[in-house]
Write a structure and sequence with these properties.
The chain is built from 2 helices and 7 strands, in the order βββββαβαβ. By secondary structure, the protein is α+β, with helices and mostly antiparallel strands. It has a 7-stranded mixed β-sheet with strand order 1-2-3-4-5-7-6, sandwiched between helices. The relative contact order is 0.24.
Length: 138
């Protein structure tokens, strides 16, 4: 995984590429929205960021560093994330992507973009692929 943090815009992006597919998630702490692009589906999903479940923006660099150290020590391999957020999809296409910020607009432009709502308990489809690997640094 690659995490990029833009302090000026209060935006973090996480990207993963594997043999099974690739995805990219943008956490926009300024607008309060998250966007995920799932490459195999050629689609984007937008949702409201639940700030009580997400790590704070200021905690992200330390969180990434902690995960990098644990990966080097092979302490994360095969272990589930400590926090997982699930979403359900609504088949309503979002047309005005510009209001979600330039990063989201750039990533999702030209793709079918849908609304996703956080759900608790049983869900129909997980779309953020363990987007929050740890919140212990909050």
């Amino acid at each position: 995984q690659i995490m990029t943090i833009n302090r000026k815009w209060l935006v973090a992006s996480i990207e993963q590429k594997t043999n099974h597919g690739s995805w990219k998630t943008i956490w926009n702490y300024d607008t309060g929205f998250m966007a995920t692009k799932v490459q195999p589906e050629k689609a984007c999903y937008l949702s409201i960021m639940n700030r009580t479940e997400m790590p704070s923006f200021d905690a992200l660099p330390q969180l990434a560093a902690d995960i990098r150290v644990r990966l080097k020590k092979n302490q994360l391999l095969g272990k589930p994330p400590t926090k997982e957020i699930t979403f359900t999809l609504v088949k309503r296409i979002i047309r005005d992507l510009e209001s979600y910020g330039p990063d989201t607009f750039s990533m999702c432009r030209g793709l079918s973009t849908y609304v996703a709502y956080e759900v608790h308990g049983e869900c129909r489809q997980r779309i953020l692929y363990n987007c929050c690997p740890s919140t212990s640094s909050r």
